[in-house]
């Protein structure tokens, strides 16, 4: 059973009474929305993003109707669209940090990608008294730079203290996603950091994904068509051949252009293969004789992931699947968790939708 949750909207009147009252609206499985424009600012005004657009020329008499409300933003130009997307990412990041980062936390994973920039910004806005006792663990060179620039204490994943023969777990990890399905399986690796991203997610008690609403999908490989795969360079030709045998249409080694000539090289010195597959099935989709084992290129996500990771030459795959940290504790799993316990999506309306595990 999936969790049924309300969408909540903060009241837009400025009184204290109305700010503390929530009005339930539409219901649907596994999601909660927050309106971010109506609540008091949770970050300094100097770091806010304003969305502007040039007025269109008026060649006729204006119609006698009122202008659209502020929530109905019209993306008249490409610049407007980009600004709106960035604003939605920022809202999602700030809400995720507000909900899941506690002052008692000691070790925090910081992922990679454009949305994580706002995660770091949200933590920084809380001030040294809040984050001063925390140590931040990066997933690659980009997040190392973000952590350093923010002035946070940083350690690599292998520098955590060992207690009773085990490295201490991260309290929480925040990271982006390229696509998220309705059961919180992820595709990651668009930034070529998937191996270290998975290591950090697996080391965390709780993993939180943050993205804009374009990354939501019912099934993986629907919007983000290809699965990123990190491979040893010498194994790339054989891996490509095997992927074609498995039903991938046109798998290819990712180019480093325009940043560099030649192949895209990860922080670990590996190449990235992008392998397109038809939309991946969920276990509940297996019916009418379908077994999800790759016939006609159709795969169930867990079966595809387990097949890919066993191929010689593959270091890691960009599918985050299986179970999450909370489920791992409840069921005493031996294997590390990969899936997030929640995903935060910034919406064009200025709201934040939260999708939680069942």
Describe the structure concisely.
The chain is of the alpha/beta class. It contains nine helices and 19 strands. Strands 3-19-18-12-9-4-5-6 form an eight-stranded mixed β-sheet, with helices on both faces. A four-stranded antiparallel β-sheet has the order 14-15-13-16.
Characteristics of this structure?
358 residues, alpha/beta, Rossmann fold, Alpha-Beta Plaits, 2 domains, four-stranded antiparallel sheet, 9 helices, globular
* C-alpha termini separation: 7 Å
Give the overall shape, derived from the CA principal axes.
globular
Calculate the mean pLDDT score and round it. 84
Q: What is the percentage of strand-forming residues?
A: 15-25%
- Multimeric organization: single chain
Catalytic activity: aldehydo-D-ribose 5-phosphate = D-ribulose 5-phosphate
Enzyme class: isomerase
Family: Belongs to the ribose 5-phosphate isomerase family.
Keywords: Isomerase
């Amino acid at each position: 059973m999936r969790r049924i949750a309300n969408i909540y909207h903060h009241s837009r009147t400025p009184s204290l009474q109305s700010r503390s009252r929530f009005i339930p609206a539409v219901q649907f499985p596994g999601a909660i929305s927050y309106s971010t424009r109506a609540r008091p600012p949770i970050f300094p005004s100097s770091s806010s993003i304003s969305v502007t657009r040039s007025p269109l020329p008026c060649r006729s008499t204006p119609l006698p109707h009122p202008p659209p409300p502020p929530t109905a933003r019209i993306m008249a130009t490409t610049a407007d669209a980009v600004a709106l997307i960035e604003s939605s990412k920022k809202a999602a990041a700030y809400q995720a940090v507000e909900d899941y980062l506690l002052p008692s936390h000691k070790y925090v994973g910081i992922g990679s990608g454009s949305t994580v920039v706002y995660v770091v910004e949200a933590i920084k806005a809380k001030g040294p008294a809040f984050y001063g006792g925390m140590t931040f663990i990066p997933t690659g060179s980009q997040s190392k730079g973000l952590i350093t620039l923010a002035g946070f204490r940083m350690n690599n994943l292998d520098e955590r203290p060992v207690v009773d023969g085990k490295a201490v777990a991260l309290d929480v990890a925040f990271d982006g996603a390229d696509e998220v399905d309705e059961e919180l399986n992820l595709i990651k690796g668009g930034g070529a950091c998937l191996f270290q991203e998975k290591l950090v997610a697996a080391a965390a008690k709780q993993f939180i994904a943050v993205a804009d609403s374009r990354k939501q999908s019912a099934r993986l490989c629907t919007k983000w068509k290809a699965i990123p795969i990190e491979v040893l360079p010498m194994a790339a030709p054989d891996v490509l051949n095997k992927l074609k045998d498995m039903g991938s249409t046109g798998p290819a080694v990712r180019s480093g252009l325009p940043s560099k000539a030649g192949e895209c090289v990860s922080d670990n010195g590996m190449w990235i293969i992008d392998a397109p597959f038809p939309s991946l099935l969920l276990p509940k989709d297996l019916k009418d004789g379908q077994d999800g084992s790759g016939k006609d290129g159709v795969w169930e996500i867990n079966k595809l992931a387990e097949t890919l990771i066993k191929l010689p030459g593959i270091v890691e795959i960009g599918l985050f699947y299986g179970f999450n940290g909370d489920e791992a504790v409840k069921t005493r799993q031996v294997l590390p968790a990969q899936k997030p316990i929640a995903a935060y999506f910034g919406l064009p309306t200025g709201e934040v939708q939260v999708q939680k595990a069942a």
